[in-house]
Design brief:
Blueprint (H helix, E strand, L loop, with lengths): L28 E3 L5 E2 L2 E7 L8 E10 L2 E8 L5 E7 L4 E11 L11 E5 L5 E6 L9 E11 L3 E12 L3 H12 L3 E2 L3
Parallel strand pairs: 2-8
Antiparallel strand pairs: 1-3, 3-6, 4-5, 4-7, 7-8, 9-10, 9-12, 10-11
């Protein structure tokens, strides 16, 4: 109720509750996992995201690595996950820092770094054994070698079994042999 200096009182009663929210939002984990190896398209998420009082507003992702620093913001949706889709153009090690903000403006502070590796470059195969000549018209030819990757280091030994037949495949194999070593294999 309200009253004035002449002691007139209002007939209406207004009862408004004021809610104060000083509590920061919380989360349980992040993805991708630390030390994971990813392609150049990364779907990064804050998992178990929640806010008890005013509700989630936004998620923030700060990335540092070979491409410098970039920041990504997304609006929180219903549910307990806040996600970001990020495209990387350079292979290497990246640090991801996650943060949540609720509708009252409370932020939970950046997470510890989640370090991931981005590797979108195929490995190289270096042949150590290439057959010298072919005497049969149809044959199975075995190439052996080692693989390496500029990001992940040495790969497992490689054995390539190829069935050589007269015609197009034979000509392609002659060309492949002339390119070795090393021969770039994408995939």
């Amino acid at each position: 109720k309200a009253s004035d200096f002449a002691d007139n009182k209002s007939e209406n009663t207004v009862n408004n509750a004021v809610r104060i929210d000083n509590t920061t939002p919380t989360s349980s984990s992040f993805s991708p996992a630390a030390d994971s190896v990813n392609g150049n398209q990364v779907h990064a998420c804050i998992n178990g995201a929640k806010d008890q009082h005013s509700g989630l507003k936004s998620g923030y992702l700060r990335i540092t690595g070979p491409e410098g620093e970039k920041k990504v913001t997304t609006e929180a949706q219903d549910g307990d996950q806040v996600c970001f889709d990020v495209t990387f153009s350079t292979d290497g090690s990246y640090s991801l820092f996650f943060e949540l903000e609720d509708k009252a403006g409370n932020r939970n502070g950046e997470s510890a770094a989640v370090v991931i590796t981005v590797d979108a470059t195929g490995p190289e195969i270096h042949f150590t054994s290439v057959p010298a000549s072919y005497k049969n018209r149809d044959a199975v030819v075995t190439y052996t070698g080692t693989g390496s990757d500029s990001i992940q280091g040495s790969a497992a030994p490689v054995t390539v079994l190829t069935e050589v037949k007269p015609g197009r495949i034979w000509n392609w194999m002659k060309k492949a042999v002339s390119l070795l070593p090393p021969h770039r294999m994408n995939g």
